[in-house]
Amino acid sequence: MSVFSGWRAAFRMARRDAMRAKGRSALVVAMIALPVLGVSAADVTYRSALPDRAEKLTARMGAADAVYSDPGMGGGPVEQMPDGATWGGQALTGVESSGPVDVPSAFPKGSRHLTKRSVPAVVTTRHGIARTEIVEFRTADPLARGQIELVDGAFPDGKDELVATEPFMDSSGLRIGSRVTVRGPGTTYTLTGTVELPDDLDKKALYADPGAVIAPWKTASDRDDTVLPPQPGGTEWLVKAAGGAGVGWPDVLEANEKGVLVLSREVVLDPPPNSDIPMAARMSGSSGSSVGTSAAVVTVVALTVLEIVLLAGPAFAVGARRSRRQLGLLGTCGGDRSHIRAVVLAGGAVLGGVGAVLGVVAGLALTVLFRPLIEGWTGNRFGELSVPPGELLAIAALGLVTGVLAALAPAVVAGRQSVLESLTGRRGTRRSSRVLPSLGAAAIACGVAIAVHGGVNGDTPMVAGGSVLAELGVLACIPVLVGLLGRLGRRLPLAPRMALRDASRNRGRTAPAVAAVMAAVAGTVAIATYTSSTMAEQEYDYTPSLTQGTAALVADGPEQVTQLPLARAAAERHLSLSGGRADYGRVWAGSDCSVYYEEENGCGTLELVKPTGKGHTCPLSGAGAKALARKLSATEHKNLMSSPPCVDEFMLMTTFGTDSSKIVVGDAKLLTTYVKLDDPAAAEALAAGTPVLLNSAYAKNGEVTLKAVHTYNDRDTENRVPHPGAARSTTDRLKVHVAPDAYADTPGIRLIVPQRTAERLGLHTQDYGSVYPLAHRPTEAEDQATASAIELAGGGAYLMSGNRLGNGTDIVLLILALFAGLVTLGAAAITTGLAKADAEADLTTLGAVGAPPSVRRTLSGFQCLVVALTGVLLGTAAGLVPAVALRLIDLRDAMESMREQPMDSAYTPIVLPWETIGLLALVVPVLAGLLAAAFSGSQTMQARRAG
């Protein structure tokens, strides 16, 4: 038999065996096809979503040949690179010139152009009013195609029409045909259509024809002094050369001589040599290394191959055992071990090839099907659907090779069996190797030590290498750990005891599945732990502008405080409140004047004088701070920065109209509503005329010192002089009630002074705003409605609802948990299916001796549960190694930064993602067991006695 005829026979036998065992074959094909599907879909999506240079230029300039703009350099000659970059590598921005530049004079002769200019505006919506951007741009012109596209309706045609992007339509509640009024000039427009920017689908903006918004606005401001003139952004000119000649490099250089920057399609796609670029000699740069990207790609591919091998390998092993009689007959007919190996390897090639082809085809189909959804996630439209044939063939070849690799170990084992063992069906007994687990334990210890050492020394590659080594060590120990499972079920009921013993006896199929689950869970836990830890660090460093669950209504200025009652009534009609409001006022010394624009000898700003000495001065802000920082641990630094002497050094933000001294006039309602201080003693102190101090570092013996200073601008700290006005400039030994230290970091307030106490001290006060407890954070519609109601009531105030951190991290953790959960369910299901196929004779025996049918279902459920739970627990432990090591690197960097800048936070926590771990360790294994039990048949076919 020749080599080729032998392989033909092997492939024919493999194909027939695959058709006979359709369930097992479908299982292997699915496991190979799924990763191939994911990689091919990701490749096509990445190639399609990532625009090339031509597509980027089309999104930037539409169908024009070039974008001309004024760099704002006063009209002198400029220099640029072919891609439009100028000094310092800055891209074209369209910033207004500080001097007159005649940009149209730089256009090529015979060309035509479009102008594009934007202006911020406040417009009416269905809910109220909203701030947005209005762009004057002739969107109906063919030159605009590619930069802006019509989704529905029609482009504007006239001075009283607008179009809006879909995100603006959604947030404003408007639709085509709605009327929109631009606040200020009071001009009303009709929405004629919906548009989108292919490279920025999330943009909220309105578009009008040139001259439709800015010119009427300027005219209205000239007629009425109360109408503020618009503040337009930069102007751009989209230029189309005559006769399709394009804008070449000579045209760009000629425009540069006139002080104009040009981004040309022709020049970017076909740049001139460096010898023709005047600026090239002064532009230094180097191409970034792709080593890191290549390493990441190789790692992902290697992990994908490992996952497939771990999951599909046991299926081939079971298939080889199920076909051992056929393989034995092959040996009796003169076939040697190489022929037996060829049959098993051919099975891997057949199933791998089918899985690879199905995976690539399904990947392309899913990309086309979910294209609109993907474009919405990425925020930009695809250009043309990119189908790289070479890359897809490589991905399919990877699936084929992986199938062969998965069958390699079973092929070797099958080739070693004697003909007698194959024909009789005896498996034989082999003792487990003690070398592999010993090496695995050593690898775990060395890997953990290397990862920790890399973390302490800031060596990221060492962390990665140590983590991989530790995970490989766990993989090596899994067979021994699986073998120990059988000893755990001695006192358990029948089904779980059999499941544990079955997993222990059949390590060849149990250990790879556990390893696959462990690999997926380890990566998920590592990323989730690191992400949760960095999020906790950000939350610690985050400085809120208001206390949680509150909003503040603030007067626009001292002259607008008379409009506060109407503004309050308007806001309260639209906010969802959980209690009554608390009013507050500002306080100053001297004659009645503005805090922000003070006349000489006019008024004085109040300051709290912080005493010196221990307990009052922050040790990290004076001499010896760096030396002290070098001695502090991250926890000690955190505690010190949270103490009253240092909290103001760390949190300098002022809020809702309070000045840098953070002194306000208020009563007990301000304590409960905003400060969240439920202290009867503090409320009684305010009622009795005693101020409440929130930061104890400013008090000495229960008293504070108030000082009045004069300045032309209360933010001008260098030119402050003692206030010479008639009011008392200094009040020593003012008795105060000191709040607990936990309230020292209250945003915007340091001292609350009762109204009668301020009058007794000769100070001036003025109502300046209110704070409200919110039932929930205002929605976008509620914000618009509240702003509109305040404007209709006369304006003069604005609403602050606070800032907050985003919740994108929760979504990332959920996606990671779902990914790991799917892999866990898949691996557990595969192992359960293989166990069912492999142990059919045992199940038949159970039925023959009188076991009820429910035992079959229960056994399948517990077999699935054992694999899932074991893999999740091992993966959780393995995933903590790189996460902790990477956080050690962050801690090292934070400590170094703290020693250079003592006020920088060195807080670097390690936070376990208990929700993710709980989902993986409890919900997923139980779900896997229930699904396995539900889909496992309880009836057993009675088999004839063999032989």
Automatic annotation (TrEMBL):
Pfam families: FtsX. GO terms for molecular function: transmembrane transporter activity. It is a multi-pass membrane protein. It is found in: Cell membrane. Keywords: Cell membrane, Membrane, Transmembrane, Transmembrane helix. InterPro entries: ABC3_permease_C, Macrolide_Exporter_MacB. Its main location: membrane. Signal peptide: none annotated. Belongs to the ABC-4 integral membrane protein family. This is FtsX-like permease family protein. It comes from Streptomyces finlayi.
